[in-house]
Amino acid sequence: MYTCESISHLLATCKTLASFKQIQAYAYKSNIHSDPFVAGKFILHCAVAISDAFHHALRLFLDVPAPDVFMCNAIIRGLSESETPQNSISMYSKLRREVGFRPDSFTFAFLLKGVANYRCLRDGVQLHCQAVKHGLDGHLFVGTTTVSMYGECMCAGYARKVFDEMFGPNVVAWNALVTACFRSNDLMALEAVFGEMPFKNVTSCNVMLAGYMKAGETESATDLFSEMDVKDAVSWSSMVGGFAHNGCFTEAFGVFRGSVRSGIGANEVSLTGVLSACAQAGAFEFGRIVHGLVEKSGLNWIITVNNALIDTYARCGNVGMSRLVFDSMPDKSSVVSWTSMITGLAMHGCGKEALQLFHQMESHGVKPDGVTFVSILYACSHGGFIEQGSTYFSNMIEIYGVEPSVEHYGCMVDLYGRSGQLEKAFDFVTKMPFSPTDIIWRILLGACSIHGNVKLAEHVKGSLALVDPDNSGDGVLLSNIYATAGKWRDAAGVRRSMENQQIKKDPGWSTIEIDKVLYSFVAGDKRDKITEKAHEKLDEIMLRVRVEGGYMPEVASVLHDIQEEEKEDAVTRHSEKLALAFGLARSREGRTIRIMKNLRVCRDCHSVMKLVSKLYRVQIVLRDRSRFHTFDSGFCSCRDYW
DNA sequence: GTAGGGTTAG
Questions:
Q1: Could you report the per-residue pLDDT of A372-383, keeping only the tens digit for each?
Q2: Which residue minimizes Cα–C1' distance to B9?
Q3: Domain locations in chain A as residue ranges
Q4: A519: which strand partners?
Q5: FRET label pair with A377: which of A51, A148, A159, A316, CA 20 to 30 Å apart?
Q6: Fold designation for A200-331
Q7: Rounded to two decimals, what is the model's pTM?
């Protein structure tokens, strides 16, 4: 015979509908199935602890002639934790209407949490009113959940008002308020509340840390972190992720090592953070070490970690490793995994494979989102698939219901502009439902540069000057367009006006990783032994590409109105060439040379790299601002289309 | 018998 207690005990480990039905059968045999306690437990378990079993929970619920509050709450909770939490509210109204359901504090806790999940302020306010109507808004748990809900809806102000009405807020309530300010991106309010708190525990400090990091205030975060006498795994991982988020990868590596040394160890958040730092720095070897740690720590089943690995390998120039990680993932339900893989392929010039993967994703039943379409359109524009690109763009809206953002429009402008259809590209800009941003104009300017359209370039530069007058890259690009067209005086004019306005050119830099050490180079500088060595080797390389490869310098890439010979020297000394020379001098034979550049690679460097890959029989992988170039046997993976 | 607070990926 089974009792209520033994049924509860059985349910604790029951995870499938089949085993659940068995337990139900025991309850029938023992004739305790209609006991309200047992029936309630059954409904709750089925509604929240077994996946895809809500329909069964609902059937059980409907079989009960007079369901009690507990049962109603179980049904509402099941819906509020589902994919469609909105349904919990309609269920609530239905129960109120049809069975005279009287909600309690639990009801509102579940409902409000559901709203927090889909962040609908209107529904949130309505529930808040209902809670007031039932006299439950003063309940500590309900109040705390309301504060969290308003935070998720980005309304720190409302959260604060609710909090101020609360009677005797405890630590949890305070922390909910702090988090609400964090979620609303309200750093001022966050700092104020943090300062006001009568008790600070680690949790609230962690929120403050994350808040500083989100706002880019890495120094304040560092100060707070060093003042904290108790630091837990969340504190450490927030620092790692925060530094990575702000592009401070050296610091991210440092804190990550610190977390391991302090005995806290790596967790999935610090691992994704440090991987993101690797991705930005292009630190392939270090990324591999972190991958080893992932395997060793047994965290290799976590989806976010795998997604970070896919992205890191792709950004470090090894999309093959990304593919291995992707293929090894047993759970491919996350759209992020697919999108990362698609982006990786597209970055590496494998546009066709990227589109194929998109179709595989669809047959897997994973729904694409806005980011997926950015990478799809990117793949099309970089692969020169103009027709397909326009089709995807219209399908995105009509079939998938994804609202196009400025980024999507940017991809389309790039798609047409890059392929030489400058008028169509310009037309797209004027017909956009947003006013064009600096980025949009810059894409068009880039297209003018590729296709040598001076007239449109001048017009675009004029619009750019209105939106973002201080950007050095734009002046450089326009000046290069003039120089390519042989209009040296105009090129010099742009440069002079940049000097007058004190606009400084972003210095180009490149990094190369050899034996796990990262070396960086800036154009033309001779500072130390390393740079000296690079210059020496570069002289030898340039001579060889000239004599054996028939290389002719392409001087249009420098903007100076200087003598031809000097121009040649300035191109010769670009940072990516220095990194390449150093790599050739120091890498072991047969090794792939991996270089990262902060700006886009210039035409001259591009042709030198092709020649070097042939003459020196090396593979060179170069990551520039927008994509990867893999040079092998005299050819580049971008097929000179970038 | 049910419930509230912290960092994370494209």
A1: 999 999 999 988
A2: A304
A3: 200-331, 509-636
A4: A512
A5: A316
A6: 1.25.40
A7: 0.89
